Amino acid sequence: MKHKLGHWVWIQCVGLQLVSTAGELERVVGIHIDATERKDSEEMGLASDARLHALSDEGSLAAFELDFEDETSWFSGAWLRLLGGVAAPASGSAALSDALQPEECPGGLEAWLLAQAPGQSSFSRVVNLRTTDGKSVPAILGINRTLTRKRTLARVVGFAFAISDVGTAIPFEPAGPAAPSAAVLDESARAIFDEVLSALSEGVIATDARGVILFANATAARLLHLPAQGFAGRTLDQVFTLVDRRTGKPGDNPADRALSASGTLPLIADQALAVMGGDALPIVWTARASYGPDSKARGVVIVFRNPDEMNLTPEELIKANRFESLGQLAGGIAHDFNNLLTTILGGLSLAKDNHDASRLEDAEKACLAAKNLTKQLLMFTKGGAGALSVCDPKDILEEAIKIASAGSAAEIVVQANEGVGAVRVDRPQILQVFQNLIVNALQAMPPAPHRARLLLKAADVHISAGQIASLPDGDYVEFEVRDNGCGIKPEHIEKIWDPFFTTKKHGSGLGLATVLTIVRKLGGEIGLQSTVGEGTVFSVFLPRADQPADVQARPAPSLRFGTGRVLFMDDDDHICSLTGAMLESLDYKFDIAKNGEDVIALYTRYLNIGRPYDAVIMDITVIGGMGGEETFNVLRQLDPDVRAIVSSGYDNDEIARQYLDMGFCGYLTKPYRVSELGKVLKAVLG
């Protein structure tokens, strides 16, 4: 019937005729039912039947159905052609059993069908089918099972597809590592790809979106104690079962975790593989899901490795731990920054709104503390460059606390008597040692109401020959990090120095391995004593230096000292305005530029009339324009005697030295006060 909107609708008509006693029609009662969905389903069913006929009777998809309750079966024409039959077999289960090689299902067909992919209704396998004349045909066998309430087979629907039919585009490869591609690969490219996968030290497994393994490399086969042919068509949970290292409890399916994650999973180091016929194998693993242009999941790639085979260089170990520690400390650092900003903002607010300048000094001190914290962060993330300096032990411990204890409520005490000998160390790296030890101690504390206490000590000691096996006799400084935390279990003490060993839920196991590497690199040694329930003491021994700690001279600032012309460049309007006011208070004439192009134009104009600027102060990074370093190179070509000063937020001696070596005359660290700006200009202009 035609709908009032103009389209046609399938209608099922149901009516009732009411007839009088005389046999005449008196009334008709009826209803019209919209049968469009049912009709569409019927047409879809017919279309599906047509497609199945095209694929399985006229095509090469060998489809079949076995009904174990009614003992009926159906086999498509392609099945008969594949196995050499001329008529449908009388017994479907016997026909399928005969087609499978005896080694495929030694316990019988039904037992084999029930044993595959437990917990799933469908599975696929690469098998060798036997034709009626005894030949072997490699094929992909796909099965969907329907079970009764007693968990016996009720119905099986499946297909077989000869692998030889797909040419070189092999979706499953039963013989070792294979390319995960449905495209035709050149044989030489295929061989190279196989070699690359085989050469990897990591195990690699790829699955489809349902968790069925598509391929695995040789390392995966070795770590899982499986033959290369043991992967194809099996589900991931059959061969890659994860358990918790400590408790042995089963872990989540890696493919499921990857598909539910927003990106690549982080490196996971707290699980082990349940290996057939052996002890669980600790592994480090990660996974990532792959998505098609339509945003639908195509599959998952899992990469894993035995941590005992992971040999990081000392430098790689230190760098990896540095960034892991920074992530752990981020929350506490943000807490301390917010406290400092509260002091700054409060002092400024009182001065601005209430004309009360009494808190400006506190605000200034908070600014300097924030600047120092930023410097520590930059030093922490950059790490050491191998340069050794003589450092005071107490300064090392107090500086390590600033970052490591950020946001912590623990009571931390530093004890170091006057006159304790100095140590020759790479300062950023030794700070990393004690930051790691402090963080570990704080994380080992029981929850409230436990009162966390941490004692840091430094004292001179003399070690005799043989007293500590790895150290020669001589004078040392002994550092102690003592906590009242949970302590370390005896069975873990020997393992805590191993890379990737961890008892923390989200730890990577790099911290103490890094500590040991750095301490021994500096000619020292580390030891520990721990009692479960009482706490742990780490003792670090470092050779005592034969000279006092380096002292950096800090000349007193001078504010007003003459006149000159300064060109200042920064892309921040507030910094330009503020620095301009500072220069004016120092009796300097000045011009402001927003980028390198403006600097070059202004400098060239005044150079051409014989009045070049006495100094140029430039920010290194300019968004959307020429930065300080590039501008300086142009200025030096225009005027080899240009006196340029770097203005940068990177408070780091190595970076400052790098720019001074380029030819800059001074380095001004943000944030700065009038006195610091004046001191740099005085040093540059003489």
What Rg, in angstroms, do the CA atoms define? 38 Å
Instruction: State the low-pLDDT regions, or none.
Output: 165-185, 552-562
Helix content: 25-40%
Number of helices: 19
Average pLDDT, rounded to a whole number, is 79
Structure report:
This protein is 35% helix and 25% strand. 32% of the residues are buried. The chain is extended. The chain is α+β, with helices and mostly antiparallel strands and 686 residues long. Helix 9 (314-353) packs across helix 14 (511-521) and helix 11 crosses helix 12 (427-443). Strands 9-8-13-12-11-10 form a six-stranded antiparallel sheet. Strands 4-3-7-6-5 form a five-stranded antiparallel sheet, sandwiched between helices. The protein contains 19 helices and 25 strands.
What labels describe this entry?
single chain, 686 residues, five-stranded antiparallel sheet, 19 helices, extended
Topology record:
Blueprint (H helix, E strand, L loop, with lengths): L10 E9 L5 E10 L1 H23 L3 E6 L4 E4 L1 H7 L8 H8 L9 H7 L6 E9 L5 E12 L5 E10 L24 H13 L3 E6 L4 E4 L1 H6 L12 H4 L2 E3 L9 H7 L7 E6 L7 E11 L5 E9 L8 H40 L6 H23 L6 E3 L1 H12 L6 E6 L6 E3 L1 H17 L9 E11 L10 E10 L6 H4 L17 H11 L3 E7 L3 E9 L21 E5 L3 H13 L3 E5 L2 H13 L6 E5 L8 H11 L5 E5 L4 H10 L3 E4 L4 H12 L1
Parallel strand pairs: 15-17, 21-22, 21-23, 23-24, 24-25
Antiparallel strand pairs: 1-2, 3-4, 3-7, 5-6, 6-7, 8-9, 8-13, 10-11, 11-12, 12-13, 14-16, 17-18, 18-20, 19-20
